[in-house]
Write a sequence for this structure.
């Protein structure tokens, strides 16, 4: 499979500047406990001091096992729902990638085989996008990693292989890896998924990982 060209702006859902999947109207209504309402304006900060790099969850409705590089409505919608608001505090970067689709995930869950979510073209694409970002866009700035579900499996592997214990770790503000499996030994913050990147314990801590999964009470 040929690698994706991340020098092409069309390979990204979000990048700073041009109107893209993050360039949506995020004005909202605030509903107070007494029922009164007010409007809350929102705007991106083009001078934000750090960057955010986002990998979206399993949402592609393509009928193939892996998605193509043409974003569908579901991929655009999840960026709007999960990531666009980060633009008020960081410069947004969100690559398109050839993810395992919902159809491909169903095949895996029913015993149809296939590689794990953190290995294959989906991982290669995100790794290549992150390397391109570091080389051409980062400029030594701090960055936050943001992901959910399949995106978090991919970024957990990427952090372990591309960041953990490497010089670039000094630029990691935090990694918000939601809905996947980030492990640590009982009573310790490091030594499981990552050798030297700890779990976060306070709001003022940086260079650390936030991870959780939510389940229904009957699960």
């Amino acid at each position: 499979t040929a690698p994706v060209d991340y020098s092409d702006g069309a390979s990204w859902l979000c990048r700073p500047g041009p109107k893209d999947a993050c360039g949506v109207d995020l004005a909202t209504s605030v509903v107070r406990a007494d029922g009164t309402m007010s409007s809350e304006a929102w705007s991106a900060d083009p001078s934000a001091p750090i960057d955010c790099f986002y990998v979206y969850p399993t949402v592609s409705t393509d009928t193939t096992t892996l998605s193509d590089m043409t974003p569908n409505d579901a991929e655009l919608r999840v960026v709007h729902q999960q990531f666009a608001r980060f633009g008020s505090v960081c410069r947004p970067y969100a690559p398109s990638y050839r993810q395992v689709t919902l159809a491909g995930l169903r095949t895996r869950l029913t015993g149809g085989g296939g590689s794990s979510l953190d290995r294959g073209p989906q991982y290669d694409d995100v790794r290549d996008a992150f390397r391109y970002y570091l080389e051409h866009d980062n400029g030594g700035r701090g960055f936050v990693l943001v992901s959910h579900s399949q995106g978090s499996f991919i970024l957990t592997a990427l952090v372990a292989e591309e960041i953990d214990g490497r010089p670039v770790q000094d630029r990691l503000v935090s990694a918000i890896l939601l809905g996947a499996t980030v492990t640590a030994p009982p009573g310790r913050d490091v030594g499981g998924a990552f050798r030297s990147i700890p779990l976060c314990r306070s709001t003022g801590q940086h260079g650390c990982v936030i991870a959780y999964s939510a389940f229904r009470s009957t699960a």
